[in-house]
């Protein structure tokens, strides 16, 4: 039986960096993956959706090029070609992951890992390996509620991304970020989309001003129908499409996308043999050091039920690997940027205004709209704004949000500033290049302090 | 009309009380029912509400001065009305503290310079060798520029030795101090600096707890959390009373094990029939009976005299979020078990809701502290001042015990009696503890008491 210092279960964006970090630190490392290396993010999530969104945006730019004085006639697209491009990108990245693992001397196993005891793992029931330390990084998968039947016209995000043609119309069940991203992309390519969300609004985790901006653009510019506060009932599907009842109305579409949420993957792990169990919601509980209650076993990423984001899993994976090989124990980071690739994009980090309200924490906010930026007008991208949330007294930056062009890129600046414990004054004093979208952060910091140069003074 | 506001009388025993905080200032508008001030009695802190509306014209008795009950402490009336000249009411300040605001309160807030000024000059180390001996005790002197630099640098200038006349700190001294402290190499996040300035902390004294040795908000927050803070009034009273008890009453302890089989089965039977007896009710009833058998345990001493009590006023310790209180079942020896149980439940509920009146938590002659629900094997309690003993009741756990030379499993509860040895001897304590034990193990007694 081969014995390894560290065995990582799951080769997604949490697992493979954990394996590489542990190997860098001199451990003998194995990684076990039962599906594709790269995990959901690379194969069925972040990367394929962003690739298709890039295609959709390119089409939209070309179609609307006349506004920039560019004449294009008969702009059209070939969705199958877009999908082929996506598959190529995914294949290239997946190959890269395997190469990196190999280059770092990480032994790779394909199969389902199950604990035999705390320090023994069986792969696909026949191969047994020893593990001094184990990092569980099994991730999550789409949740399908019981009231949704199995049918080829009812798909979740992974099956949707495998389609080689788009439907003419589509019902999206669930107004979370997955539903809204795919809805935005499909709508840009001309699909008639209806989103049904049970909660009072779509993207409920965001502050109301951000939600409002996204929803207005999705409804008015992209023509997406958004129905909120009502469930979708009587879901049925036939050879021509799917339907459901929402309030008094019966909705129909060629396709129904189920995007109600994700559930942790722990099946087959045989956690009980390792002395572990899952929480009531199916997650593996961990502490700030990514430790489970079994001393030799760590867990990271979606399966732990904390923020379900690839980059958070990566950060946890690196910390778990360091802690597993016996470095000075380190807590994982808690400042996690959240990016949503809707049209327009949204990104947030740190404290939101609604959280501050719930905590009764006194904060000041400063906003600046892209319409007030030279660059925004020059690029023809004037939707949205950036916002700082700072401590009312010290003006320490606590949170930030951006909605609009490049929002998912812009959030990096804000994350760095918050992590470095900047105050609004210092951010406002930092020189930002002109003309750029990133100037909005500086302007918003000025606004927070009532010192705006490029906005009229607030009425007193 | 000008209305005098008087110090209320809390409870029968209270003779003097002092105000711990005024919630209204002179000139404030007062509505009927508004809380005017907080009063500290020997048991607790009470809120005092206004019986009428008006403007608070004058505060006569400030914070921290002990005055007899019924003394005028302030005047209420219409804005602009003239307050009658009052004879100074404060004459009963505790010995050693004249009518001036007492030192104890002032010293809580005073910074280093005030404390230093209060000391006799001879006890101070001489600030500089060349300072003439006749100079008054060192005052903290700093130039405005030096103070501004210290403030901007977020440091405490009190540590700096001044080079100016009479030890006055000038800008040059601050700069030298910063250089000597290697201030320039300090790495501080902007938000951490802002927070340290707000909290009045000294950056040089802060320690970074990360690999980069950069002082961050978490480091400042830790220093803030470690700053001494005043305990709640309730905790201060607990501290004072318990320390007094431990110092004056020589404690000794006697532990007995009780087989709770009979008590528990009897309680189960009674409660199945609709009663609501707690285990504490049985222990309380057994204690009351034992106290009647052994009156010394129900007495109190100051070391010279002994006070016998003909009645049992039973204290029951109740844990609250902020501390603990001891509501008192008065005349417990005159009650049936059902009455005792009902009264105890009423008082405990009231204690948890924070609504005990002073009389409901004073005058106890014996106290029970039951930590049975907290999973403890055994513990000892501190005697409440004014009593001679306290019973500490621990968890009931199933244990193997020997009965008729065979090992059987029984629910066993340990209880420990703390006694004041000035009044109670070992034999008395042992007899008392065993008397309670025998009662708890006696099913016939419970049948008689509860039927």
**Broad CATH class of the largest domain in chain A:** Alpha Beta
- The CATH class designation of the largest domain in chain B is Alpha Beta
Major sheet of chain B: size, sense and barrel closure?
6 strands, mixed
What is the radius of gyration of chain A? 24 Å
Largest sheet of chain A: 7 strands, mixed
User: How would you name the CATH homologous superfamily of the largest domain in chain A?
Assistant: FAD/NAD(P)-binding domain
First-last Cα distance of chain A? 75 Å
Percent strand of chain A equals 15-25%
CATH homologous superfamily of the largest domain in chain B?
Chloramphenicol acetyltransferase-like domain
Output the CATH topology of the largest domain in chain B: Chloramphenicol Acetyltransferase
Number of domains of chain B: 3
Features:
heterodimer; A: 460 residues; alpha/beta; FAD/NAD(P)-binding domain; Enolase-like, domain 1; 3 domains; 7-stranded mixed sheet; 13 helices; globular; B: alpha+beta; Dihydrolipoamide Transferase; 6-stranded mixed sheet; 4-stranded antiparallel sheet; 20 strands; 30% helix
Protein described:
The complex is a heterodimer of chains A (460) and B (451). With 460 residues, chain A is an alpha/beta fold. Chain A folds into three domains: 2-142 and 263-324, FAD/NAD(P)-binding domain (3-Layer(bba) Sandwich); 154-260, 3-Layer(bba) Sandwich (FAD/NAD(P)-binding domain); 344-448, 2-Layer Sandwich (Enolase-like, domain 1), CATH 3.30.390.30. Chain A has 13 helices and 22 strands. In chain A, strands 1, 2, 3, 4, 5, 6 and 17 form a seven-stranded mixed beta sheet that branches. In chain A, strands 8-15-9-10-11 form a five-stranded parallel beta sheet. In chain A, strands 18-19-22-21-20 form a five-stranded antiparallel beta sheet, sandwiched between helices. In chain A, a hairpin with a 2-residue loop joins strand 4 (113-117) and strand 5 (120-123). In chain A, helix 1 runs parallel beside helix 8 (310-324), helix 3 (46-63) runs antiparallel to helix 4 (79-103) and helix 3 (46-63) packs parallel to helix 6 (177-188). Chain A is globular and about 70 Å long. Chain A starts with a strand and ends in a 12-residue tail after the last helix. Chain B has 451 residues and is α+β, with helices and mostly antiparallel strands. Chain B folds into three domains: 3-106, Beta Barrel (OB fold (Dihydrolipoamide Acetyltransferase, E2P)), CATH 2.40.50.100; 138-226, E3-binding domain (Dihydrolipoamide Transferase), CATH 4.10.320.10; 233-450, Chloramphenicol acetyltransferase-like domain (Chloramphenicol Acetyltransferase, 2-Layer Sandwich). Chain B contains twelve helices and 20 strands. In chain B, the strands form six sheets. In chain B, strands 11-20-19-18-14-17 form a six-stranded mixed beta sheet. A four-stranded antiparallel beta sheet of chain B has the order 1-8-6-3, with no helix packed on it. In chain B, strands 5-4-2-7 form a four-stranded antiparallel beta sheet, with no helix packed on it. In chain B, helix 5 (190-199) packs parallel to helix 6. The radius of gyration of chain B is 30 Å and the shape is extended. Classes of the chains: A alpha/beta (460), B alpha+beta (451). The A-B interface holds A 391, 393-397, 420-423, 425-426 and B 189-192, 194-195, 198, 216-217.
């Amino acid at each position: 039986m081969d014995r390894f210092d560290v065995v990582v279960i799951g080769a997604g964006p949490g697992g493979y960096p954990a394996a590489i970090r542990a190997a860098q630190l001199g451990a003998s490392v194995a990684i076990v993956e039962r599906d594709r290396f790269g995990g959901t993010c690379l194969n069925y999530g972040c990367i394929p959706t962003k690739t298709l969104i890039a295609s959709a945006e390119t089409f939209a730019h070309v179609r609307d090029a006349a506004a920039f004085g560019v004449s294009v006639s008969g702009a059209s697209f070939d969705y199958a070609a877009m999908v082929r491009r996506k598959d190529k990108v995914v294949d290239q990245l997946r190959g890269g992951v395997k190469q990196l693992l190999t280059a770092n001397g990480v032994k790779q196993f394909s199969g389902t890992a199950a604990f035999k005891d705390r320090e023994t793992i069986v792969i696909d029931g026949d191969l047994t390996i020893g593990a001094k330390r184990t990092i569980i990084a099994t991730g999550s998968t789409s949740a399908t509620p019981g009231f949704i039947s199995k049918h080829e016209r009812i798909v979740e995000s992974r099956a949707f991304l495998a389609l080689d043609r788009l439907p003419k119309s589509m019902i999206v069940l669930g107004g979370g970020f997955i539903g809204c991203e795919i809805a935005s992309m499909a709508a840009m390519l001309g699909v008639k989309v209806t989103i049904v969300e049970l909660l009072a609004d779509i993207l409920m985790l965001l502050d109301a001003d951000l939600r409002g901006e996204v929803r207005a653009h999705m409804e008015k510019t992209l023509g997406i129908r958004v129905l909120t506060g009502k469930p979708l009932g009587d879901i049925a599907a036939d050879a021509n499409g799917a339907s459901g009842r929402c309030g008094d109305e019966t909705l129909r579409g060629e396709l129904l996308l189920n995007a109600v949420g994700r559930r942790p993957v722990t099946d087959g792990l045989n956690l009980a043999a390792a002395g572990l169990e899952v929480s009531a919601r199916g997650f593996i509980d961990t502490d700030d050091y990514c430790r489970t209650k079994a001393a030799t076993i760590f867990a990271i990423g979606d399966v732990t039920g904390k923020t379900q984001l690839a980059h958070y899993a990566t950060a946890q994976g690196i910390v778990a690997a360091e802690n597993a090989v016996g470095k000075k124990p380190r807590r994982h980071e808690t400042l996690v940027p959240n990016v949503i690739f809707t049209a327009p994009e949204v990104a947030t980090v740190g404290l939101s205004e609604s959280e501050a309200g719930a905590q009764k924490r006194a904060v000041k906010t400063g906003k600046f709209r892209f319409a007030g930026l030279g660059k925004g007008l020059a690029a023809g991208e004037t939707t949205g704004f950036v916002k700082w949330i700072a401590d009312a007294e010290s003006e320490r930056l606590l949170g930030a949000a951006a909605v609009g062009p490049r929002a998912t890129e812009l959030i990096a600046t804000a994350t760095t500033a918050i992590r470095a414990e900047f105050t609004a004054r210092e951010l406002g004093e930092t020189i930002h290049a002109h003309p750029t979208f990133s100037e909005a952060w500086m302007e918003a910091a000025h606004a927070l302090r009532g010192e705006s140069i490029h906005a009229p003074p607030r009425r007193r | 009309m000008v209305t005098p506001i008087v110090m209320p009388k809390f409870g029968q025993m209270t003779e003097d009380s002092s105000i711990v905080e005024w919630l209204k200032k002179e000139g404030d508008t007062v509505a009927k029912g508004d809380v005017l001030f907080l009063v500290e009695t020997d048991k607790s802190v009470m809120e005092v509400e206004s019986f009428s509306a008006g403007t608070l014209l004058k505060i006569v008795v400030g914070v921290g001065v002990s005055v007899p009950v019924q003394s005028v402490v302030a005047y209420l009336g219409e804005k602009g009305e003239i307050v009658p000249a009052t004879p100074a009411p404060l004459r009963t300040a505790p010995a050693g503290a004249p009518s001036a605001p007492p030192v104890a309160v002032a010293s809580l807030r005073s910074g280093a310079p005030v404390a230093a000024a209060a000391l006799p000059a001879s006890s101070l180390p001489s600030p500089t060798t060349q300072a003439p001996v006749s100079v008054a005790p060192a005052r903290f002197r700093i130039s405005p520029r030096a103070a501004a630099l210290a403030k901007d640098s977020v440091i405490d200038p009190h540590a700096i030795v001044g080079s100016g006349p009479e030890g006055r700190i000038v800008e040059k001294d601050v700069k030298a101090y910063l250089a000597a402290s290697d201030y320039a190499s300090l790495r501080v996040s902007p938000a951490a600096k802002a927070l340290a300035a707000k909290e009045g902390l000294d950056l040089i004294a802060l320690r970074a707890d990360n690999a980069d040795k950069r002082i961050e908000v978490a480091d400042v927050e830790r220093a803030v959390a470690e700053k001494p803070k005043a305990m709640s009034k309730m905790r201060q009273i607990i501290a004072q009373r318990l320390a007094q008890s431990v110092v004056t009453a020589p404690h000794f302890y006697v532990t007995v094990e009780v087989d709770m089989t009979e008590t528990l089965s009897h309680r189960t039977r009674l409660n199945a029939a609709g009663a609501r007896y707690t285990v504490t009710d049985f222990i309380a009833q057994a204690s009351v009976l034992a106290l009647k058998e052994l009156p010394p345990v129900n007495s109190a001493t100051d070391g010279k005299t002994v006070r016998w009590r003909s009645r049992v006023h039973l204290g029951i310790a109740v844990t609250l979020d902020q501390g603990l209180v001891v509501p008192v079942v008065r005349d417990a020896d005159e009650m049936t078990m059902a009455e005792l149980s009902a009264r105890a439940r009423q008082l405990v509920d009231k204690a948890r809701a924070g609504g005990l009146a002073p009389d409901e938590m004073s005058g106890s002659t014996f106290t029970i502290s039951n930590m049975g629900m907290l999973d403890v094997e055994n513990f000892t309690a501190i005697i409440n001042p004014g009593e001679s003993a306290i019973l500490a009741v621990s968890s009931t756990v199933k244990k193997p015990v020997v009965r008729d030379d065979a090992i059987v499993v029984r629910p066993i509860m340990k209880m420990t009696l703390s006694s004041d040895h000035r009044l109670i001897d070992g034999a008395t304590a042992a007899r008392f503890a065993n008397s309670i034990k025998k009662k708890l193990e006696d099913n016939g007694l419970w049948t008689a008491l509860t039927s």
